[in-house]
Amino acid sequence: MPEQPNGQNIARVYSEQAKSYIDFAPTSFSWQFIEKPAFDRHLRDLCRPQVRVLDAGCGSGRIIEHLINNGIQPDNVTGVDISQNMLDEARKKLPEVKLIQADLVDADLPTNHFDLITAAMVFHYLDEEGLKRMMANFHKWLKSDGVLFYVTTHPIRIVNDNLSLYQKRGWRNEKTPWGSETPFFHRTTADFINETISAGFTIDMIDEPDVAKEGERTNPEEYSKYTSFGASRLVVRARKV
Ligand SMILES: C[S@@+](CC[C@H](N)C(=O)[O-])C[C@H]1O[C@@H](n2cnc3c(N)ncnc32)[C@H](O)[C@@H]1O
């Protein structure tokens, strides 16, 4: 079992892996055929110029770029990431976006400020306490009725070779599709949902997206891999009440 990482360890992991992640992320199979379609399906109503967005764990900026391409005004977007190397890459592509280096577990951002917070593929770097604190921050930073939209690796995908591990919460090492290993905190689907509700959100929608059919034509090998997982992503849209 890997040592429980704190924010600094994750920052170091991502600084070491920045180059390979940056090369991988914008055209990755899962982004093109699972995650991006989920953003398009579930956030269409919020892709308007005046919507104020925080992209939490923005990495090298593919989510922000996508939201801007779909109508959100760049100067209404804030990206936060713990890794300076990832932010340096985002800054090259997104000069008008406010990018902040901080740990979202204890970052200081304005209260009741954002209409939308997005967090893609970030929560598995947080243990129970870390996720609780991040969710509480998201709730504080959103305006009333603001939307939290998150995408995570589906818990089933992590244990699909041995379902008896499903209830075994905790840190493990996972091989990444960009050719490295990262620490990964496994929790169940119920844990995600309960943490969301405990932080004060109501759930509007849960999606366990299919892989888009187009992925089969584009890359049959990856298509067959991702369809063999059962569900590979868990997508939640929640609202601050
Ligand atoms: C798999 S990448 C995803 C990046 C981006 N959301 C995307 O979909 O391309 C995970 C990102 O989360 C960031 N991260 C992890 N823990 C964090 C924390 N506690 N605070 C801020 N950023 C964090 C990492 O530095 C990394 O850039």
What does this structure look like?
With 241 residues, the chain is an alpha/beta fold. The chain has a single domain (7-240), classed as Vaccinia Virus protein VP39 (Rossmann fold, 3-Layer(aba) Sandwich), CATH 3.40.50. The chain has helices at 7-24, 29-43, 62-69, 84-93, 128-141, 155-159, 189-198, 214-218, 220-227; strands at 53-56, 77-81, 98-101, 114-120, 142-153, 170-175, 181-186, 201-207, 233-240. A seven-stranded mixed sheet has the order 3-2-1-4-5-9-8, with helices on both faces. A two-stranded antiparallel ribbon has the order 6-7. A hairpin with a 5-residue loop joins strand 6 and strand 7. Helix 1 (7-24) runs parallel beside helix 4. The longest helix has 18 residues, at 7-24. It binds S-adenosylmethionine. S-adenosylmethionine (SAM) is lined by residues 7, 10, 14, 25, 57-59, 62-63, 80-83, 86, 103-105, 120-122, 125.
